[in-house]
Amino acid sequence: MEKFEKMNEAIEDPTSVLIVDDEPEILSVIQEMLEGENYRLLPAYSVEEARSVLHRENINIVLTDLLLGDGSGTDILEEARRIHPDSLTIFMTGRPTIQNAIKLIKQGACDYLAKPFGLETLKMTLKKASEIIKLERENIRLKEMMSFYRVSEAMGTAIELDQLLKLILDTAIEEFEADKASVYFFHESDGKIELKASVDNTDDSIKNAACEHCFFVSMKVIDRKEASLYNERDPDFASDEESIRSSICQPLMAKGKVLGALVVVRIKNAHYFTQGQLTGLGLLASKAAGAIENSTLYDNLKESYIATVQVLANAIEARDEYTRGHTERVFHLSEILAKELRWGEKQLGDLKMGGLLHDIGKIGVPDSILNKPGALSAEEFEIMKKHPETGAHMVESIPFLKQAIPYILYHHERHDGTGYPRRLRGNDIPYPGRLLAVVDTLDAITSDRPYRGGRSLPEAIEEIKENSGSQFHPEVVNACVRAYESGKLDHLFENKKKVERDLLVEAV
Ligand SMILES: [Fe+2]
Question: Would 200 be classed as within a structural domain?
């Protein structure tokens, strides 16, 4: 909000007018004419002097004589358009021919005044230019508000941090007509900065130099906790590369702490960034900082939830004396098969939670059934069969755990449609269920039970293969066989024997 207020203040500032004429009397007369009007007047007597003012000051309107002692007013127009792309130039000329006027307008002039001109003509011309500037500013503000709104909307939908940062960077590139935008994170513990996200539309030849520039600018901004606007003419512009023109950078601040920096660079675009654009970038930076802060809080909360869930899962295992260590093994086996099936990062993350929680519904199964040494009766089996739905029901109201539901709910479905609880068939069974069905069974076959000893890994694999297409999805069976044949399962089963021996010793 503070940033908005600052931006509004900047918009209400008096219009800055650079007046250039090599005749001091004319300059004085114009200044006198405009006295009392809401203009900030900056005089210059030559092209050279005008250039220096353009570099030093934020200029909105240039009022220049066409012919000057050391050059032409069109040189000033070009420089003004490059440094202050939103500025407007009005020419004053003693030779007001139609051809001259057309030529000047074509070169980018906003208007021209035929010398000599009266007070009213001057006031009207400047007023017209000020109105155009005001409208353009309002247009820019509206566009910035739209971007701000878009980013705010996205934040409201609680999308992942990476997606939100990408949206912020894309918005920055589009709104500020830039070629590269990056977000750096600052790690307070070691004082280092890390590139977190970047959108880069630069050519290969310039990529390294652009990255270095962004890094140095961000370091400075993080260090000073202050926004920066650089252009290639600044003595401390952090690049020797000629094609890097200008950059704006804002620190990402939350509760007085610097979390990182948002930097935007122009390469192909020859215009320098303006102070207004630096302020606009501040709005996006505040959104990025808010998102990072929320995400950190979210991650901490998620971690504490997982820790609680782990305790819960362990508590269930402790009740079920025949399947001790099962959850842990299911997780490792699932991960191996999921990688074999080329699952993405996100699915692998969900798998961790799904593997941990898949039997959480057993909390509702009485000890007498859970630890029954023999086969279950029909009624007992009906109670046992409820555990997937009980488990899904337990986690459905916890947003962090929702991704575990397909693992919990579908791990006892069978490929031929005779499983439980939903009797889904073939490809109707979600991937997590298909995967976990194989893994769960593989671990069960190889585990000792009071009424039978655990079988060896090769025997278990044979049994899995025999049930491909009936109990299990063939794709998952193939992945399991491939993992087994390439020796990826061996270490898990060697460890398993050892763990079981240790447990036996403990029990004795
Ligand atoms: Fe189960």
Answer: yes
pLDDT of 501 reads 44
Burial of 107 (0-12, 13-18, 19+ CB in 10 A): middle
Give pTM, 2 decimals.
Answer: 0.50
Q: Where residue 469 sits, what CATH number does that domain have?
A: 1.10.3210.10
Q: Which domain holds residue 37?
A: 15-137
Whole-number Å distance, alpha carbon 387 to ligand 1 midpoint, is: 7
CA of 482 to the centre of ligand 1 (A): 25
Stretch 337-353: mean pLDDT, rounded?
89
Sheet containing strand 257-266, strands side by side: 192-200, 180-187, 257-266, 246-254, 228-231
Q: Is 179:266 a contact under the CB 8 Å cutoff?
A: yes
C-alpha 323 to ligand 1 mean position (Å): 11
- Output the CA 429–ligand 1 centroid distance in Å: 15
Are 200 and 90 contained in the same domain? no
Distance (Å) from CA 385 to ligand 1 centroid: 8
Which of 82, 102, 137 is the endpoint of a domain?
137
Rounded mean pLDDT of 415-435? 96
Task: Please give the distance, rounded to the nearest whole angstrom, from the Cα atom of residue 507 to the centre of ligand 1.
Answer: 25
Q: How far is the CA of 412 from the centre of ligand 1 (A)?
A: 6
pLDDT tens, 264-294?
A: 999 877 778 887 788 888 888 888 888 888 7
Cα–ligand 1 centroid distance for 324 (angstroms):
13
Q: For all residues of the chain together, what is the average pLDDT?
A: 84
Q: 68 near 94, Cβ under 8 Å?
A: no
Same domain, 179 and 251: yes
| Distance between Cα 302 and ligand 1 center (Å) | 24
CA of 410 to the centre of ligand 1 (A): 9
Q: 423 CA to middle of ligand 1, Å?
A: 15
Beta-strand ranges (E) seen in 179-227 are 180-187, 192-200
**Residue 103 counted as domain residue:** yes
| Assigned token pair, 217 | 């600018």
Task: Encode pLDDT of 415-424 as tens digits.
Answer: 999 999 999 9
pLDDT tens, position by position, 21-62: 999 998 999 999 888 888 999 999 999 999 999 988 889 999
Whether residues 221 and 330 fall in one domain: no
Count of domains observed in the chain: 3
Query: Is residue 374 located within the same domain as residue 490?
Result: yes
**Residue 17: helix, strand or coil by DSSP?**
strand
Calpha distance 205→208 (Å, rounded): 8
Q: How far is the CA of 383 from the centre of ligand 1 (A)?
A: 12
Query: Distance from the CA of 411 to the center of ligand 1, in angstroms?
Result: 6
Query: Which residue, among 16, 170, 14, has the nearest Cα to 84 in the 3D structure?
Result: 16
Is residue 329 located within the same domain as residue 282? Answer: no
Residue 154 predicted with pLDDT over 70: no
**2 part of a folded domain:** no
Give pLDDT, residue 279.
83
Q: Is residue 328 situated within a structural domain?
A: yes
